[in-house]
Automatic annotation (TrEMBL):
Keywords: Cytoplasm, Lipid biosynthesis, Lipid metabolism, Metal-binding, NAD, NADP, Oxidoreductase, Phospholipid biosynthesis, Phospholipid metabolism, Zinc. Its main location: cytoplasm. One of its GO terms (cellular component) is cytoplasm. HAMAP family: G1P_dehydrogenase_A. Its EC number is 1.1.1.261. Binds 1 zinc ion per subunit. This is Glycerol-1-phosphate dehydrogenase [NAD(P)+]. Substrate binds at residues 129, 176, 260. The gene is egsA. InterPro entries: G1P_dehydrogenase_arc (IPR023002), G1PDH (IPR032837), Glycerol_DH (IPR016205). It comes from Methanohalobium evestigatum (strain ATCC BAA-1072 / DSM 3721 / NBRC 107634 / OCM 161 / Z-7303). Glycerol binds at residues 129, 176, 256, 272.
């Protein structure tokens, strides 16, 4: 139970070790020792990220006398979670490591939660705050669901690897952080209109994280470790805000509902953080806020700000706007309970230059 009878968060689950820097992937055994983990590890990794990081973690742990198994997965489905659980039971794994993208991390996170064993997050890209959060996005019955899980015991983010990942992934991470602006505005609205429990600390941390990122937009560039470090720290900070809140409220509002809606209408076109960034521009307009500031910041970072840059047809932007309010009905946002009219959806998308 995360909240007490007054709706206050009573249990804040945070990672114990957060290790960020050049070459820290080679410190993985030290982190496992620090956490007093057992001898048997199971690594969940992806097709591309196996060569980039999975094999390094495998060899590093094995060289230090650990028994290490590796599972390569390409999609975060419930079937894959079950297969990882079976592998972990077969090998008597004491802990799981998600090494790679959001998919590998989410599979390992949920499987470890269900097996009640520790989980370590070793991201190869800073594309969203799932690298540190206590939620796992898993496809079940053809729908993506966000499932409460245990937070990683440790996050080991090698900024050299992350800086060398395709820049698009880092820019997407920035879009996920910029979302905090409208997520917090939605939360404040829900607190005022629906008396929803609100954490000033979580909201302030979340808002401040987005502001630092936008203020630093000029310095976020490809292949720069300083940029990777800045974005990773912002994602960690967003994750902490969610832990304080005991939910994703400080980092997921109407702009995330738009992204989730787009996933169901035009799956696979764009990355989560890219869609959330574009959603933030439009939801900020609906809030009557400074949507140009969001758009300018994303443009400086070279994150998408239009349907065309997302690779999504204009009509799908409108369809997603029209169903966004149905995505998570218990979470009150600027979209209200009845959502936008078609005219209003077209007006917001056109005024903010998301569609032409
Ligand atoms: N748990 C949470 O709170 C959240 C979860 N998510 C979920 O995460 C999932 C995917 O996130 P997404 O934003 O698409 O991005 P990902 O982080 O999953 O990465 C996308 C692709 O980039 C590849 N990649 C990752 N790192 C590198 C690297 N260093 N070099 C080369 N290629 C690399 C991956 O390869 P490979 O094939 O090896 O995996 C993958 O194909 C989605 O299912 C989404 O729903 C999103 C937000 C929050
Ligand atoms: O992506 C997230 C925060 O950035 C998690 O949000 P959801 O709870 O909407 O899945
Ligand atoms: Zn997100």
């Amino acid at each position: 139970m995360i909240q007490d009878k007054h709706g206050e968060t009573k249990w804040m689950q945070l990672p114990r070790d957060v290790v960020v820097g050049t070459g820290v992937i080679n410190d993985i055994t030290d982190v496992c020792n620090d956490l007093k983990l057992g001898d048997n590890a199971l690594i969940v990794t992806g097709d591309s990220t196996r060569k980039i990081a999975g094999d390094i973690v495998h060899d590093e742990l094995e060289d230090k006398g650990r028994s290490v198994e590796m599972y390569t997965s390409s999609s975060a489905t419930m079937d894959e979670v079950r297969r990882v659980e079976d592998e972990a039971m077969k090998y008597g794994s004491n802990y799981l490591l998600g090494v790679g993208s959001g998919n590998s991390i989410d599979i390992a996170k949920l499987a470890a939660t269900e097996l009640d064993i520790p989980f370590l997050s070793v991201p190869t890209a800073a594309s969203h705050d799932g690298i540190v959060s206590s939620r796992a996005s898993i496809i079940h019955d053809s729908k993506t669901t966000s499932i409460q899980s245990n937070a990683p015991m440790a996050v080991v983010a090698d900024t050299e690897i992350i800086a060398n990942a395709p820049y698009r992934l880092l820019a997407a991470g920035c879009g996920d952080i910029v979302s905090n602006y409208t997520a917090v505005l939605d939360w404040e609205l829900a607190s005022r209109l629906k008396n929803e429990s609100f954490s000033e600390y979580a909201a302030s941390l979340s808002r401040m994280t987005a502001k630092i990122l936008i203020d630093s937009a000029d310095s976020i560039k490809p292949e720069l470790e300083s940029s990777a470090r800045l974005v990773v720290k912002a994602l960690v900070s967003s994750g902490v805000a969610m832990s304080i809140a005991g939910s994703s409220r400080p980092a997921s509002g109407s702009e995330h509902m738009f992204s989730h809606a787009l996933d169901s209408i035009a799956p696979g076109s764009a990355l989560h953080g890219e869609q959330c960034g574009v959603g933030t521009i439009m939801m900020m307009y609906l809030h009557g806020g400074d949507w140009q500031m969001i758009r300018d910041g994303l443009k400086k970072i070279r994150a998408p700000t239009t349907a065309e840059e997302l690779g999504v047809e204009d009509k799908y932007i409108i369809e997603a706007l029209l169903i966004s309010h149905t995505i998570r009905q218990e979470r009150y946002t600027i979209l209200g309970t009845s959502g936008l009219t078609r005219d209003a959806a077209e007006a917001v998308a056109k005024t903010t230059k998301v569609i032409s």
